[in-house]
Amino acid sequence: MILFLTVVSGIAWTVVYVEAVRVGFRDRSYAIPAAALALNFAWEAIYASRSAATALSVQGVINIVWALADVAILYTFFRFGRAEFPAWVTRKLFLGWALLLGVTAFAVQLLFVAEFGWEAAPRYSAFLQNLLMSGLFIAMFIARGGARGQSLLIAVAKWIGTLAPTIVFGWLGNSLLILGVGALCSIFDLAYIGLIWRARAASAVARTSHL
Question: For the chain, what is the total number of helices (H) and then of strands (E)?
């Protein structure tokens, strides 16, 4: 059961990343909120490197795949992200802010390791940043006034990819913290799925009315 859910999570999040790259190029934007992208890349780079330096596990291989996929998403962020900001944010300011965000993300992840150790840190940090991401997806939908740079596939795969490890580490692992934070992620994720679904339905109606 645990191996099955781990693979489900790995596949679902890989779908999120591949779709994020596709949507990013399609809409000339970035499909993962910036703060969440920075934290995800830092998490995956740190734990993928550790996995490569030690004995590889299923999760370790998945971490490496995710880290490589994040590089492509980062490209869409740096290629198209400046256009999402107000005109007064110059290219230099944008790059400086992105650098600060990246350094902060790595610092936070390493502080989790220092506080909780290599075994517990990835679980706690992953679920907390997942909750942040769930909220930021909704904020991104509101800021962009719709589903531009987003997709229903990302929303659904993100929910499944988070739900599977919630069961593994929260329910089966008897962690009330992870179970609670994972449940909150599901609430936000389902709300986001509803927003994307509604936007798609409204777009379909608008197209039909113009025929």
Answer: 6, 0
Q: How far is it, in rounded angstroms, from Cα 121 to Cα 47?
A: 10
At residue 176, the 3 state secondary structure works out as helix
For tokens 């059961």, the residue is 1
Q: In whole angstroms, what is the distance from residue 108 CA to residue 63 CA? A: 18
Q: Which residue has better confidence, 207 or 10?
A: 10
Q: What is the overall mean pLDDT for the chain?
A: 92
Reference 129, options 102, 154, 115, 108; nearest CA is 108
Looking at residue 211, what is its pLDDT?
57
Cβ–Cβ contacts within 10 Å for residue 154, how many?
25
Q: What pLDDT, on the 0 to 100 scale, is given for residue 72?
A: 94
Burial classification of residue 205, based on how many CB atoms lie within 10 Å of its CB (0-12 exposed, 13-18 middle, 19 or more buried): exposed
Distance of alpha carbon 120 from alpha carbon 118, whole angstroms? 6
Distances (CA, A) of 121 to 3, 124, 129, 176: 20, 5, 12, 16
Is 17:73 a contact under the CB 8 Å cutoff? yes
The answer to whether 81 and 25 have CB atoms below 8 angstroms apart is no
> What pLDDT does 45 receive?
92
Task: Provide the 10 A C-beta neighbour count for residue 38.
Answer: 25
Q: Rounded to two decimals, what is the model's pTM?
A: 0.92
Please give the pLDDT value at position 209.
64
Which of 105, 87, 88 lies closest to 34, judged by CA? 105
